[in-house]
Amino acid sequence: MLVDDETVLGISGYREVENCDGTYYLSWTYLDEKYRGQGLGKKMLGNVLDRLRELDARKIFVKVSDYQEDGISIYAAALSMYKSFGFEVEVVGEDFYDQGESQTILGLEFKPQSDEIVVADEKPVIRFNGLFEIAETDGAYTFEWIVEKSTGLFGKRSFSPEDLEVGIGSVKEQGGRKIFLTFPSNLVLIHRPLQAVGFKYVGQLRDYYEEGLHELHFSHDLEGVGELSE
Ligand SMILES: CC(C)(COP(=O)(O)OP(=O)(O)OC[C@H]1O[C@@H](n2cnc3c(N)ncnc32)[C@H](O)[C@@H]1OP(=O)(O)O)[C@@H](O)C(=O)NCCC(=O)NCCS
User: Fold this and answer.
1) What is the pLDDT of residues 43-54, one digit of tens each?
2) What is the pTM of this model?
3) What is the pLDDT of residues 5-59, one digit of tens each?
C-alpha cells in the first residue's frame, strides 16, 4: 500500500503460487487517478519487487487485459510500467476475458533461469473432475484435473479425446465461448488427445513450476465447432 500521511494513494501486492518453487503473481495494482504519471506507480511496484527479492522469489507473473475504451488501451501505463522493470510477454490468450479482449501474461525472472535444465518426462493418469467459468471472464471456461494413482498393468488410462468431448459439450451447453487449459510441460501424453479435438497450443509460462518446468497453455474456440461437425 502506498500511503501519504493517512491517505491511501495506491495498492499493490503479490501472492505465492501453491506447489511451485518461488513463483508469484502480482496482485491488482492501482494508483488513485490524481497521483498518476508522477512515477509513484513505479515506486510502488519497485517496493513490491524488492520485498519479493528478500523472500528469495524466483519468478513473478502479471496478467494484463488489452481492454480499450474509446480506442484507448486503459492498461497502457501498466504495461509500460511492467516492461520498464524487465517483465516480458510470455503468453497471449486471445479473447480471454471476452470476445475481442485478450489477456497478456508477462513474466520477470529474479534469478537467471537456465535453458539447459531438463525435467524428466512423466506419464501420470490424468482425469478431469470438474469445469468452471474462469473468474473475471465472460464465457471462458477451464477444466479441473487431478492425477490418479496408476495401478500398474491394469491401471486406468489418462484422458482421451472422448473425455475432452464430454467437457466441450458441457461448456457449450452452458453457453461458453472458449476453453483454456494449462498443464506442466513434462506430461507427454496430453498432446495427442488435445490436438485430436481441436485444442491449440498458445504458448508457455517459462519455468513456472520450477526451473525447467514450464506451464503450457492451450485454448479451444467453441464458435462454429457445432457447424463443423454437422
Ligand atoms: C498502472 C499505474 C499503477 C501506474 O502508475 P503511474 O504512477 O501512473 O505510473 P508511473 O508514473 O510510475 O509510470 C509508469 C510508466 O507508465 C508510463 N505511462 C504513464 N502514463 C501512461 C499512459 N497514459 N500511456 C502509456 N504509458 C504511460 C510512464 O511513462 C512510465 O513508463 P516509463 O518508465 O517507460 O517512462 C496507474 O496508471 C494505475 O493505477 N492505472 C489503473 C489501474 C491499472 O491499470 N492497474 C494495472 C492492472 S494490470
Assistant:
1) 999 999 999 999
2) 0.93
3) 788 899 999 999 999 999 999 999 999 999 999 999 999 999 999 999 999 999 9
**How many A from CA of 107 to the centre of ligand 1?**
18
Q: Last residue of a domain, which of 109, 134, 160?
A: 109
Q: Which residues sit opposite 219 in a β-bridge? A: 180, 200
State whether 11 and 74 are in the same domain.
Answer: yes
Angle subtended by helix axes 40-54 and 76-84, to nearest 10: 50
Residues 44 and 84 grouped into a single domain: yes
Where is the domain boundary, 109, 140, 159? 109
Element (H or E) spanning 195, and its range?
Answer: helix 191-196
| Best residue for ligand 1 mutational test, from 25, 61, 73, 81 (most atoms within 8 Å of Cβ) | 81
Strand partners, 210: 213
Domain that holds residue 165: 125-229
